[in-house]
Amino acid sequence: MNKTDSNVLFQLVFCCICVQVNTASAQQATLKEAFKEDFLVGTALGNAQVLGKVPAALELAAKQFNSITPENLLKWESVHPEPDKYDFKAADQLVDFGRKHDMFIVGHTLVWHSQTPKWVFEDEQGKPLERDALLERMRDHIHTVVGRYKGRIHGWDVVNEAIVTEPRDERKGAWRETPWSMIIGPDYIQKAFQYAHEADPDAELYYNDFDEWKLGKRDYIAKLVSNLKDNNIRIDGIGLQGHWGLDYPTVTEMELMFQDLSQLGVKLMITELDINVLPRPSRHTGADVAVRFQDRPEFNPFATGLPDDMQKQLANRYEIIFRIFHDHRDSLDRVTFWGVDDGQSWLNYWPIAGRTNYPLLFDRNYQPKPAFYAVLRVAEDEK
Ligand code: GLA
To answer: Coiled coil: which residue ranges (predicted)?
Structure first.
């Protein structure tokens, strides 16, 4: 072997060792540790996970994250399926898990138009309730659920998605018409926040929605926050869901979103982060669970695995997004991913059922993806 060859060989061996060391140290590294000076890093847990049926997911959640949100199990239909029946089994497990691991626990969600049974809005004869009766029902629900976890659930998504992204009728504005708004009137939002505060005066209270990177949504969020503040009603933060794609929102849109919303004087949090890598069947960018499309083969191109170039695109996208989060760490309190691993993600079922999506940092075997290392790199670089 001549001198040049042995140099090349040496460099090769050295590089391999470096890569191995890097990978090994990154595997040791955790998201919660990497961003501990900046914001909490959370995940959403589902029923099967909290009931102990997927121990690997729980183990990963405990290792990587310092905050948890229930994915569905505290929604009205799950926790209060019938007028006189509450089911706290899964929620109790979630709270125990969070406390055991010293996590910031988020309650999601008290008042929403979706995943709320029809009976909530009807009397015993199936006729729509009057305002006072529905307020009473809302108050009871909030007091029962928030009261049960008083001092243990630290923050609540009190109202979810009360604003539409593109109002159909400009004169009516962008307040979403739901049974809550139609029966109670626009002050249902104030009432929900009041009741939650009564039930646990120390809990943080949030408004949660999607598409805040669009100006119209932000204008209405500003109205909502000032309306609550003008009436001396507690609101601590705005949850920005963060169901985003590889090409939206743009960097400028995200920057403007943070710039505008950080003026409101409440905390900001990314509450349901995932990045869709599959083709979109429409220009719809929101997270409206009622929107559905028929499957076609071209909408499910990665059924057998995500190609390397897509892994790279996803990693780059996460890196860009986390650089922006890091830049706005003074107003950003928490970044929560909507799920632990790709297999858990709702994006395998929405807006088309039965696709194979790859929106998170851990794959279906709970292994870190290139996107995980890209996110950690942001924390490393910014030290
Ligand atoms: C919305 C809700 C969440 C969840 C997602 C989809 O963003 O806030 O609770 O239902 O849709 O999983």
So the answer is: none
